[in-house]
Predict the 3D structure of the following.
Amino acid sequence: MSEPLKIAIAGLGTVGMGLLKLLQDNSTTISQRCGREIVVTAVCSRDRTKDRGVDLGSITWYDNAARMASEADAQVIVELIGGSDGIALETCMNALQAGRNVVTANKALLAHHGMTLARAAKNSGASVHYEAAVAGGIPIIKSLREGLSANNIQRICGILNGTSNYIMTRMRNESLSFEAVLKDAQDLGYAEADPIFDVNGVDAAHKLAILASLAFGTEINFDAIHIEGIGNISLSDVEYANELGFRIKLLGIAQRTETGIEQRVHPCLIPASSIMANVEFAYNAVEVTCDFAETVIHVGPGAGAGPTASAVIADLVDIARGHTLPVFNVPGDKLAALPTVPMNEHLGKYFIRLKVTDHSGVLAQITAILSKHDVSVESVLQRAQDPGKPVPLVMVVHETREHRMNAALLEISALDSVMSEPHLIRIELH
Ligand SMILES: NC(=O)c1ccc[n+]([C@@H]2O[C@H](COP(=O)([O-])OP(=O)(O)OC[C@H]3O[C@@H](n4cnc5c(N)ncnc54)[C@H](OP(=O)(O)O)[C@@H]3O)[C@@H](O)[C@H]2O)c1
């Protein structure tokens, strides 16, 4: 066997400890596949005194990850600290400037500084690997960079945040409110104590930014993503969606249109019979629509120590085999800056939920406004309530541009008969 591949690990939390365990448990298999051993020579974490349940005695401990990245006896620095800036960025930059390869699971860092890292890697001849940054154990980065590399990709659509998917699944299965499931998920350890990036769509957007760059050969452009989370989805939305044959999922979608690239993260109604609708709980899924391979769907666990460590090791195996690729699929100077399609140009069907007074003529008033804006109604649902009380009114409208929908809703919300802000959810049929 050749010389071992020496690695240094920054961050010994969920993923870092998962990595140490997997390297130990599957050492024979991994060494055979690499053609050499992977040896951990250095580690760094915040608290040296913490009992992590493993003997780190033979490994050099660093108190400063950025210093470790420059100085450790290692060819690869594995960054598993997290955060888009600060120590994670400094660690990766120091490693690359010293000509060491970087492996990271940090989607926030890549979404915000991916281009800076790619340039630093090019300058020093090192490489950046990030299979674990998107969809945990699903090898979606490999799929886009290698398996599907012959194809022009038209669209990527993913369930990219396990916590949101878990919440939406339990809301539907158990008829619970968003708040009730979130609290339970936190108590059970499925959701972070601070789940803001999970539920507000930002975590999914970090991952979408990476996928869009790989799929379309464009520079990462996080700021171009339209982001909405699931915090406004009510149990009644879930129930009406069910009645109409849909399920609600937080999706990240990047697609080519005639005028540029559309990138968006928001809750969507999708047909209940679709594969994506049946990806439940904390599972992730990524659907890639290609010109020759057609539609390829990847499903698997999107997080957790084991799946994420598995993805980190896939990168280490590549490095050990001497297999490196341009960071974002094509050489940096070939990455295009394609125009971004603004959200108000989005073309799609919409679900609208209104609360209206229980009087005759209200529906006619609303449909007249929709029609004035060229929006045509496909179906209407109205359930009887207590007499005299406001009634919910749910509509599905045919495909239209979002600016027409917004203009119509602005007028509708000003009607005396409309008792609360109209609630809109986009429908994705494919
Ligand atoms: N958890 C998942 O399932 C998952 C899945 C995919 C991607 N990721 C990504 O993987 C990365 C790590 O996530 P995680 O869940 O493992 O996080 P975590 O459990 O919070 O672990 C973070 C680790 O970083 C260490 N750390 C924090 N600040 C540090 C500093 N200034 N210097 C050195 N070490 C520092 C912590 O040290 P102490 O232990 O000493 O406090 C801890 O060991 C993140 O980028 C995350 O987005 C995670």
The pocket of NAP is lined by residues 10-16, 44-47, 50, 65, 80-82, 87, 105-107, 132, 136, 303-304, 308 (CB under 6 Å).
